[in-house]
Amino acid sequence: MTHECCLCHDRATAPQIANGRWQMANGKWVEIERRLAGLRASPPISILQLGRKPLFKTGPMRHLRNFLSAVLVIGSLSAGLFVTGCGKSEPASQSTTGGDKKAKSAYTIGMSQCNLGEPWRVEMNAQIKAAADKQPKLKVIFKDAQNDTLKQRAHVEEFVGAGVDLIIISPKEAQPLTEPVGKAMDAHIPVIVLDRSLLGDKYTCFIGADNKKIGRAAGEWLVKKLGGKGKVVELKGLMTSTPGQDRNRGFRDAISGTGIEVIFEADMKWLEPDARKEMESALSRFTKIDCVYAHNDPGAHGAYLAAQAAGRAKEMMFVGIDALQHEGVAYVKQGILDATFQYPTGGAEAIDTASKILHGEAVPKQITLGSRVFDKENVAAGGTELK
Question: For the CA atoms of the chain, what is the radius of gyration?
């Protein structure tokens, strides 16, 4: 049998050790004739001393048992160092879906809403709360960024620092929120992005409708209603957000090559008061406007109020997006809007997806929600699904 110290790789045979006829000298084990002495009186020796000086002076054979015990202890420590220092270590695999986590009695979800100045976002939060209330294990902490990107970045950082189990975020803007969401993922906290996407794909799941498809459907509806020609005002949502960009792009694709002309466009940042002001500017500049296409229903309603105040509301059509039952759909029923296109909040779907993630179930990277159009012809029947 051969024994080896992993730190110095010197060898000694079992008989030599058993007879106590060896010690370290010049980096090698050599036999000695003297007896070991003073074992118990010797001061503690560090493992690092093994390679540069004798372990023990000569001593009586009756201390051999104690000596062998010391050798076994040192050998165990050396083996541990060898595994740690010489072997390769692999990081433990991490799951972004929470599948590596043990089941808990309760889960905390941090929800960051970009603002509550839009009725659609108030409805989103309400749907999230209603869905979460049906699952006793889930607790949702809501935060309102008040249309402030820096506040929303801070929300994500606070959630990470608090160690929440999952984050839901409906971002104000794509680029500034991409980094903090990525850091949350690095901290192994799953993130569901709701409504507005981010740059890249460093998140767990995105839930939202197809804004480009909705914008295109609005454009096609308008081309049909106006007979392929007319003058249009476009009131855009926040153009640094992906929904604003996609609703614009889809609409422009649909009217391209037709006689529809956009004579005025402005970014009303999704807010009804801003839309009303921009529409007042359009009314003062143009004597003929055939339709207003707004990126959300509050924008379309604000434009209607401005036109009504100017005595011109009946001269034009108003089209919006969101189709909340108590807002856009109600406006169509009242004859205020001519059409509204549904953009689901995804609140209930977010909680359902969060629950699956927290319980280790796989979820798709993207969940695309459907949409419907509500106009005067079909609103009573519940609208028509977009194909």
Answer: 36
